[in-house]
Amino acid sequence: MNIVCIAWGSLLWKPQGLKLASSWHPGGPPLPLEFARQSDDSPELALVLCETARPAPTYYAYLATGDLDEARAMVREREKITLARPEWIGSIPALDGAQGDPRIVAWLRAKRIDAAVWTAVPPKFDGQNGRVPTADEVLAWLDSRSGEQRAAAEDYIRRTPAHIDTLYRRAIEAQLGWRPRRDAHVTQRH
């Protein structure tokens, strides 16, 4: 079975525990993405699936495994998702409470790829999973960061490939001036 990981955020530049069998390829399924999750373990505002957002481009890389459980475990460990939240790891075929995604099913069929995994953590703001912040809340929170926290939050947003153009990203660029880095593109195999 050939399995890909679909990604759009820090997995692209920090795949860490993912065992990739290819480089990241553009042309993943367009998915609704937004900078809408306060991270539990860093000062980043992560780019996550957000059904109220407009579709944005994604990337995919083949994984060095043909076992879907192993592929899901790689994502779970990389993203520090507890065993109590198996639904936060998306997969086709859907397992462990994950919901199938018809957009990804159609994309897999068109690409003739057997299976996919991805990070399916929900938006989160002010400690509430599922809460989508407003653009004003995002801007105020990011602008309130200082020192190393601000640098890390800015780095995350600036490293995200430029063509992942979300409404909040436009607001962040306009108010904070955090434009994509010149090297914010994906060309490396990790």
Describe this structure in words.
It is a single chain. The chain is an alpha+beta fold and about 190 residues long. About 30% of the residues lie in helices and about 20% in strands. It contains five helices and ten strands; from the N terminus they run ββββββαβαβββααα. It has helices spanning about 70-80, 100-110, 135-145, 145-160, 165-175, and strands at about 5, 25, 30-40, 45-50, 55, 60, 90, 115-120, 125, 130. The strands form three sheets. It has a five-stranded mixed β-sheet. It has a three-stranded antiparallel β-sheet with strand order 4-3-5. It has a two-stranded antiparallel ribbon with strand order 9-10. A hairpin with a 2-residue loop joins β9 (about 125) and β10. α3 (about 135-145) packs across α5. The longest helix is centred in the C-terminal third of the chain and has 13 residues, at about 145-160. The radius of gyration is 16 Å and the shape is globular. The model has no long low-confidence stretch (mean pLDDT about 95).
Share of helical residues: 25-40%
- Determine Rg (CA atoms, Å): 16 Å
* DSSP helical segment count: 5
Any low-confidence stretches, pLDDT <50, length ≥5?
none
Give the mean pLDDT: 93
- β-strand amount: 15-25%
Please give the largest β-sheet: 5 strands, mixed
Number of strands: 10
C-alpha geometry: globular
How far apart, in Å, are the first and last alpha carbons?
A: 21 Å
Query: Which H/E pattern describes the elements?
Result: EEEEEEHEHEEEHHH
With strands numbered from the N-terminus, the spatial order across the biggest sheet is: 2-6-1-8-7
**What structural category characterises the helix and strand content?**
alpha+beta
